[in-house]
Amino acid sequence: MYRDCTIGxxxxxxxxxxLIETVIETIPAYVDRIYVVDDGSTDDTxxxxxxxxxxxxxxxxxxxxxxxxxxxxxxxSGPRDQGVKLQVxxxxxxxxxxxxxxxxxxxxxxxxxxxxxxxxLDDGLxxxxxxxxxxxxxxxxxxxxxxxxxxDRADYTKGNRLLYREYRAEMPRFRFIGNSILTFLTKIAxxxxxxxxxxxxxxxxxxxxxxxxEIDEMYEYYGYCNDxxxxxxxxxxxxxxxxxxxxxxxxESSITYPTYIWKVSGMLFRNYLWRLHxxxxxxxxxxxxxxxxxxxxxxxxxxTAWLWSLLTAGRVVFLHSIxxxxxxxxxxxxxxxxxxxxxxxxxxxxxxxxD
Length: 355
Description:
By secondary structure, the protein is an alpha/beta fold. It has helices at residues 20-26, 45-63, 109-123, 142-150, 173-190, 207-212, 224-234, 257-283, 287-311, 317-346, and strands spanning 7-13, 33-39, 74-77, 85-88, 98-103, 127-130, 156-160, 203-206, 239-243, 350-353. It folds into 2 domains: 7-277, Spore Coat Polysaccharide Biosynthesis Protein SpsA, Chain A (Alpha-Beta Complex), CATH 3.90.550; 286-351. It is 47% helix and 14% strand. An 8-stranded mixed β-sheet has the order 5-2-1-6-8-7-9-10, with helices on both faces. β3 (74-77) and β4 (85-88) form a beta hairpin. The protein is elongated and about 80 Å long. It starts with 6 loop residues before the first strand and ends with a strand.
């Protein structure tokens, strides 16, 4: 338990036999329940998870971190130099502490996280974090993701490796470029215009927000985190960016970036239209939806007219091209105007945690 809130951590793992044990062992003692999801690994990940879970659960019982009769609470030191006291769970409801879960087939990291989220909701945890099984997320930073939710400043927190130059120093250049492209597209799709590094999987979410976003519909490919931001905005949830350094150690990424960007971009476009329809036309009415639709229609009309003028022989081709260009520019102006509306709509829903 952390500051009177029960905490869960979902750990998705796919072919992480050399790293998953360290991840499980280093998750802070104040975490009540750890859901380690083997997403159809083809190596020895599942065996390592089960053995690590057995060892950690036995140690938790022996040291009193889990009290079967609910009679004992254990105090642990808080984050260094923070002066925070952390209380480890005293409820038998959270035994065992580590819960191994196995998918028979690979469903993608989003699918693994959905499984863990469902279990966390069933267990009634106050806050559920996500830490990858590849060892790239520093467990000592977890409290930074929990504090804004505990203090009711945010409903969802996520890492941001792009805020400071020194924090993104370890990020390979091709990843930085791809991340920057998807950051811009996610801003448009989600409506969170201050949010950066949407690919960051180090997150935490409140129980109320998790209930609100209908996780059964969550995207299961790597773009699950972008998809979740769209759903959070549609439901009016508050998001906090937590500054953190990029870390690339032993893990090898299985992401093929051209395919990744193409698939996630398509998903974001569909989600963008869905958000406008649901948030600004069904749940409530806001004129920005009409501006967006008018902008898309006007740009489409202008481009169509321009292409038609190129295919049409005659003296009026030049005039058609100029008028088509003016229509496209007008559509772009409408789009920019809608973006201003969108920024104002969500400006009170975003904060940045810089240190």
